[in-house]
TrEMBL record:
<protein>
    <submittedName>
        <fullName>Uncharacterized protein</fullName>
    </submittedName>
</protein>
Length: 70
């Protein structure tokens, strides 16, 4: 997956949920996230850890607008 496309989708949708082989990450437009388009990497800083996600290992992407919790 080309992370430049994900960067544009995050701007448009406000949230993307990406799944690699074994992990799922929910990324919001306000999160501390950097897209390294040269190396096809996503760098995500979360309260518990920092993640480096390789765009080549993203198998599934879900895009949706925020929603009201029932």
């Amino acid at each position: 997956m080309n992370v430049e496309i994900l960067k544009d989708d995050l701007k448009r949708w406000g949230e993307v949920i990406i799944t690699t082989g074994s992990e799922t990450f929910e990324i919001h437009s306000g999160d501390n996230v950097q897209f390294d388009t040269e190396n096809n990497l996503i760098r995500l800083s979360a309260p518990d850890a920092e993640y480096i996600i390789c765009g080549n290992h993203i198998g599934f992407v879900k895009k949706h607008f925020g929603h009201k919790v029932q």
